[in-house]
């Protein structure tokens, strides 16, 4: 039996132990990646049950997640194709130019979107709006059943199917499970898939500010010895701040009152947008790199942060997760057309081959950038300043960087080709 629903945001699992939901795919974790995956699979007629641990209303609360994400051009195409973009486009702020500067050096890189075409580099979108869109959209799709709040208590993976027992009673049967349950991924742990990685000793302080003057859709990334300080344009005279700081200093900064915090922030922000005022709460995200040793197992695949967690220096973590989503959707669409079981080893192996290299490259790139820029060692500073100047003067190299930021490089899944 496949259950459908009308209002995803208010649906809770039935408590009768005998309740059985069945679908093609079980998605564990209904966050930005899991929720988009359910919509993308539905686009190809593949049904899913999404099990999300948190209450949807809690996920939408202003205090839940202060982050805004840089959504690349190709991620936007995916969101458009699966019916999510229409719910967020009024809230999404285009990023037309990106300016990169290095500490005390006057050298900076300037990327202008019109050097590579008409489209913006991407859009800044507050995560809460994308979450809200996901709940709206999933509620419209007969192929999707959202169970929230709910947790998988036991996942049995046999040669022919997966069978999940939910903590509050009820079961879900599907051809395979996809773990989209974030960095700590209990599903990945339970499957015994190890992760390789390290902590950066840095924490990202995230907040939103209002400023006197307009940002003109320009994003700024200022490299300071403690890590990158990013000013990212939101709708109106507002910007999202990602302030990377040495871990040890963060408790003291977070404990400051609003006036003290704004003063510290202002010292890094500068005065180019006039006076700034903090709006809303602040958050602290400890930073680490992690990479799962493998992203498929018997009737199991990992997607998004459960498979790879990276430094936010290039704003690519979610974009990479959305690439996983679009690749999975293609792989399953082809399997469906060929009459194959979605959990077959060769179907999953195609997903692994497709995404493994791309994700590894992005992890290495973000890690390298952070190591190169988050220090104040004189020769390294000189080398990177020369590098910035060189990129600025070599148009072909500059265009390559810009196409990369837009997500245009690599083997693009169909939903990202536009
Ligand atoms: C400071 C900062 C800034 C960032 N900026 C950008 C950016 O500009 N652009 C970009 O592309 N990326 C950015 N990222 C990365 C991005 O936020 C993540 O890659 C993205 O949120 C990952 O989404 P996800 O759905 O895989 O995981 P999560 O967002 O962690 O979602 C996991 C979901 O699974 C649920 N869950 C967990 N356990 C269970 C369970 N046992 N059962 C059921 N459900 C469960 C959780 O409730 C949650 O809803 C940034 C990250 C940080 C820290």
UniProtKB/TrEMBL annotation:
Pathway: Cofactor biosynthesis; ubiquinone biosynthesis
Keyword Flavoprotein: yes
Superkingdom of the source species: Bacteria
Boundaries of every FAD-binding domain copy: 23-355
CC terms in the record's Gene Ontology section: ubiquinone biosynthesis complex
GO biological process: ubiquinone biosynthetic process
Record bears the keyword Repeat: no
Gene Ontology MF terms: FAD binding; monooxygenase activity; oxidoreductase activity, acting on paired donors, with incorporation or reduction of molecular oxygen
Keywords recorded for this protein, A-Z: FAD, Flavoprotein, Monooxygenase, Oxidoreductase
InterPro entries noted in UniProt: FAD-bd, FAD/NAD-bd_sf, Ubi_Hdrlase_CS, UbiH/COQ6, UbiH/COQ6_monooxygenase
Cofactor(s) listed: FAD
Coiled coil feature spans: none
Protein family according to the UniProt entry: Belongs to the UbiH/COQ6 family.
Protein name (Swiss-Prot/TrEMBL): 2-octaprenyl-6-methoxyphenyl hydroxylase
Organism: Candidatus Defluviicoccus seviourii
Taxonomy of the source species: Bacteria, Pseudomonadati, Pseudomonadota, Alphaproteobacteria, Rhodospirillales
